[in-house]
Amino acid sequence: MEKNDISISVIKRLPRYYRFLENLKNNGIIRISSKELAERMGLTASQIRHDFNCFGGFGQQGYGYNVPELYKQIGDILCIDSQTKAILIGAGNLGKAIASKVFVGDRGFRLVGIFDKNEAISGKVIKGIPVRHINYLENFCIDNSPECAIICIPSNDMKELTDLLCKLGIKYFWNFSNYDIAMAHPEVLVESVHLSDSLMTLSYLANSEEGEG
């Protein structure tokens, strides 16, 4: 199956498979069936087999899956070793947490620069990377050619910034703001994370459950 034919829902399940397999591998589990994996993940065995078959299938009839091998193969599909250069804009609480906690292992991107407009933050070091003032962004991008930007700033500062970043060669955005980058720049890839949307979804589900009760 061609990559373009694989649904986004399958792709979004791959990191979850990767996470579960990592835990199994770290606990010394070498072999697992689709049925056992499905029970651990709350899926069906047929769903797992369908997802894996999108990439050629990995199991053996009567054996199941070799956990370390499957873990590596899914990591290869997710290109976790690609080490695409990334910069982070906004070194407040959220940005600092992402730089400190998310970039602790190989997840396909390598953080090479952190920027903030707050002069009081400039010069501080997060995970070995100095926080530079936003005024140095353009020269840094010209010298280092990052391709990804992680955005952790308010939406009202976004239009001018994203226009500049796209001009400087940024192709991929991990967007934590409410600004619709994809609408303004359809030529780039954007993964938007709306934390408040997730919380409101939980609120709806929680209150719906109470109403049903």
Write up what this structure looks like.
It is a single chain. The protein is an alpha/beta fold and 213 residues long. Helices cover 46% and strands 17% of the residues. It contains nine helices and nine strands. Strands 5-6-4-3-7-8-9 form a seven-stranded mixed β-sheet. Strands 1-2 form a two-stranded antiparallel ribbon. Helix 5 links the parallel strand 3 and strand 4. Helix 1 runs antiparallel to helix 4 and helix 2 packs across helix 3 (45-53). The longest helix is centred in the first third of the chain and has 19 residues, at 8-26. The chain starts with 7 loop residues before the first helix and ends with a helix. The model has no long low-confidence stretch (mean pLDDT 91).
- Gross geometry: elongated
pLDDT averaged over residues: 91
| Uncertain regions spanning at least 5 consecutive residues | none
Rounded Rg: 20 Å
Please describe the biggest sheet, giving its number of strands, its sense, and whether it closes into a barrel. Answer: 7 strands, mixed
C-alpha termini separation: 45 Å
Query: How many β-strand stretches?
Result: 9
| Percentage of residues assigned to helices | 40-55%
Strand content bin: 15-25%
Structural class: alpha/beta
Write the H/E string, N to C: HEHHEHEHEEEHEHEHEH
Number of helices: 9
Q: What is the chains' assembly state?
A: single chain
Walk me through the topology.
Layout (H helix, E strand, L loop, with lengths): L7 H19 L4 E2 L1 H8 L3 H9 L11 E2 H11 L6 E6 L3 H10 L6 E8 L8 E2 L2 E5 L3 H8 L3 E4 L6 H10 L4 E4 L5 H4 L4 E4 L2 H18 L1
Parallel strand pairs: 3-4, 3-7, 4-6, 7-8, 8-9
Antiparallel strand pairs: 1-2, 5-6
Helix pairs in contact: 1-4, 2-3
